[in-house]
């Protein structure tokens, strides 16, 4: 499938009569001058809007998302398929407060310092680390350390063992600092124990 | 003479708010999804709350100038420039207890006993009682769904008499979501100037428009001198509880209004004013984020209402959809009351004036998920009541 296969749809959308409330997307591409550039900007905005809405709630249907953005259902369905194929969307998952279900479960953020390898830089070492299933995430970071590794385990001992036996013994790893997470207040934009309910009266003028 | 009989006949003559009765009904129900709320579902942006907390910590707790904090009036003046409105922060802006107080001040200042005040309806519920309290006679000017509830120039013209003193404009409109086009505003301004009327322009929803920018009538040449612009923090910045609004008008009008304000209110809350400065100076991104959300929900609810057979014009401003419910054969009140049993609260349109009969107001200041759930319930209700 070509990467711009949904464009004709989005284009004809512009030409034809607008469904209720498609202005938001319209208003924006009036800014750029030439039509193909405008269309590109429109596509890009649509992609970002769709991703944003899925990121907020991945159970939203393509139909709901299309209605919210004022574009035809097929356009969004196709766009989502394409984003999945391009591995922009990698997985749909839930944000879970594990503290509430499993008190023993531990997460540690580990700062790892490494000597980069000729030719491969940090990538090869990062790979050796992220292949372990207990590793939740690995990022190259600026600052005193090189890699930030997040590890999850069933209990403290398991994580400690992983660090001492696996992580610090990897060739080129020169130092590690382990921070156990004690309490999560907010993750992925979600406040876990939000006290701010809806305080409004049911009916107001 | 009974105690009640000795009270002010003007006050006793005011009808109680139609919303109140409905509020009592809705409050008794459990598991109601409310589309009846006339305020943002967002909490005030944290940066604004944080600024107020900081102000409190520094002991910012005294009266301010009657007009409001100079820093706030400057921020307001700059902000209004964005709507092509030019006001001198030192003399032409007055900070009030929400837009609500400005409505009261404006009408009390403009009208003399016996004057008529034109109020296009359906509209927000405060203008009529405030006009009555000021000693004026409110005159409803109906707007219709055929005009997408914009004020039609010939209807305005037809309502003018020698006693007409002022016209109240509420655009973007609560409850219809109508906004005025540049041409509408020009045409209305011409008639207003021709008949030498004042305008009270409540622009509290000015930021909440979708696709088109709000056009203020005060920006039309010749109109500033006869217009009191009302705006506030409540809707655009999700700050309803702070009670900060303002009006902008020529100096001579502000000087009269400030007298009432000075004797009845003194000044708007000081912490709220500090918070408002923060919102106006640095709250744009938060506001834009909220407007984007409203817009998405707006599309969702308008499409959903039309899909279940409640014809709904496109609301271009505020956060209300105003569907036509006449196809159900029910009155607005019957519709709203019976829908409560299905777990959804909406506000009957007649609360906003006789011209609102046959419609209900559905606020989309609630999450997309709630809107979808409400629409499912409404679909079941419409199915059940629709005449065969
Ligand atoms: C049109 C209109 N004007 C004014 C107000 C009052 O707002 P506030 O006093 O909070 O500024 C409202 C509130 O619902 C409104 O809808």
Which series of helices and strands of chain B comes N to C?
HHEHHEHEHEHEHEEEHHHEHEEEH
| Strands of chain B, total number | 12
CATH class of the largest domain in chain B: Alpha Beta
Mean pLDDT value of chain A: 84
Q: Catalogue the ligands.
A: pyridoxal-5'-phosphate
Highest-level CATH class of the largest domain in chain A: Alpha Beta
Assign the structural class of chain B, choosing from mainly alpha, mainly beta, alpha/beta, alpha+beta, or little secondary structure.
alpha/beta
List the topology elements:
The complex is a heterodimer of chains A (about 200) and B (about 400).
Chain A: H1 7-15, H2 23-29, H3 35-56, H4 62-69, H5 73-85, E1 106-114, H6 123-130, E2 135-140, E3 147-153, H7 156-167, E4 173-180, E5 186-187, E6 190-191
Antiparallel strand pairs in A: 1-3, 1-4, 2-3, 5-6
Helix pairs in contact in A: 2-3, 4-5
Chain B: H1 9-13, H2 18-28, E1 33-34, H3 46-57, H4 70-81, E2 93-97, H5 98-110, E3 116-121, H6 127-133, E4 137-142, H7 153-159, E5 164-170, H8 182-194, E6 198-202, E7 227-232, E8 244-248, H9 251-264, H10 270-282, H11 284-307, E9 320-321, H12 332-340, E10 344-345, E11 347-348, E12 360-363, H13 368-385
Parallel strand pairs in B: 1-10, 3-4, 3-5, 5-6, 6-7
Antiparallel strand pairs in B: 2-8, 7-8, 9-12, 11-12
Helix pairs in contact in B: 3-10, 4-10, 5-6, 5-9, 11-13
EC number (chain B): 2.6.1.-
GO biological process, one term (chain B): amino acid metabolic process
GO molecular function, one term (chain B): pyridoxal phosphate binding
């Amino acid at each position: 499938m070509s990467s711009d296969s949904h464009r004709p749809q989005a284009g004809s959308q512009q030409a034809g009569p607008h469904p209720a409330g498609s202005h938001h997307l319209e208003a924006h591409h009036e800014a750029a001058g030439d039509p193909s550039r405008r269309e590109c900007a429109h596509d890009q905005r649509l992609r970002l809007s769709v991703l944003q809405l899925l990121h907020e709630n991945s159970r939203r249907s393509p139909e709901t998302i299309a209605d919210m953005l004022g574009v035809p259902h097929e356009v969004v369905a196709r766009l989502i398929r394409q984003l999945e194929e391009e591995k922009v969307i990698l997985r749909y998952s839930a944000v879970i407060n594990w503290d509430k279900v499993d008190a023993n479960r531990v997460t540690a953020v580990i700062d790892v310092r490494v000597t980069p390898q000729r030719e491969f830089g940090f990538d090869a070492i990062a790979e050796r680390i992220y292949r372990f299933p207990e590793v939740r995430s690995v990022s190259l970071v600026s600052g005193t350390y090189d890699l930030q590794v997040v590890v999850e385990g069933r209990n403290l001992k398991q994580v400690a063992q992983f660090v001492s036996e696996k992580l610090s013994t990897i060739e080129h790893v020169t130092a590690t600092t382990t921070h156990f997470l004690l309490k999560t207040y907010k993750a992925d934009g979600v406040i876990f124990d939000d006290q701010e309910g809806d305080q409004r009266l049911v009916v107001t003028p | 003479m009974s105690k009640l009989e000795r009270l002010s006949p003007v006050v006793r003559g005011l009808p109680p708010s139609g919303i109140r009765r409905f509020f009592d009904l809705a409050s008794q129900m459990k598991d109601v999804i409310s589309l009846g709320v006339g305020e943002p579902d967002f909490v005030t942006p944290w940066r604004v709350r944080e600024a107020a907390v900081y102000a409190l910590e520094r002991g910012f707790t005294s009266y301010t100038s009657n007009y409001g904090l100079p820093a706030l009036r400057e921020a307001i003046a700059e902000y209004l420039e964005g709507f092509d409105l030019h006001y001198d922060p030192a003399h032409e802006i007055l900070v009030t207890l929400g837009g609500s107080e400005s409505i009261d001040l404006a009408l009390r200042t403009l009208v003399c006993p016996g004057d008529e005040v034109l109020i296009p309806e359906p509209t927000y519920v405060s203008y009529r009682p405030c006009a009555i309290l000021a000693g004026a006679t409110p005159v409803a000017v109906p707007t219709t769904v055929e005009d997408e509830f914009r004020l039609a120039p010939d209807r305005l013209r037809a309502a003018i008499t020698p006693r007409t003193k002022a016209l109240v404009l509420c655009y973007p409109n609560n409850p219809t979501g109508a906004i005025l086009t540049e041409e509408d505003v020009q045409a209305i301004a011409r008639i207003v100037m021709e008949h030498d009327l004042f305008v009270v322009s409540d622009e509290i929803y000015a930021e909440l428009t979708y696709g088109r920018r709000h056009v203020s009538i005060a920006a039309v040449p010749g109109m500033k001198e006869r217009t009191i612009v009302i705006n506030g923090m409540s809707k655009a910045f999700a700050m309803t509880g702070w009670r900060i609004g303002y009006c902008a008008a020529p100096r001579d009008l502000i000087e009269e209004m400030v007298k009432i304000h000075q004797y009845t209110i003194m000044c708007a809350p000081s912490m709220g004013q500090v918070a408002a400065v923060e919102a106006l100076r640095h709250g744009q991104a938060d506001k834009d984020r909220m407007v984007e959300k409203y817009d998405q929900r707006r599309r969702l609810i308008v499409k959903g209402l039309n899909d279940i057979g409640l014809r709904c014009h496109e609301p271009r401003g505020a956060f209300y959809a105003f569907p036509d419910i006449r196809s159900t054969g029910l009155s607005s009140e019957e519709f709203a009351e019976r829908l409560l049993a299905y777990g959804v609260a909406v506000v009957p349109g007649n609360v906003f004036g006789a011209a609102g009969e046959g419609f209900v107001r559905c606020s989309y200041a609630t999450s997309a998920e709630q809107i979808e759930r409400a629409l499912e319930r409404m679909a079941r209700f419409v199915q059940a009541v629709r005449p065969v």
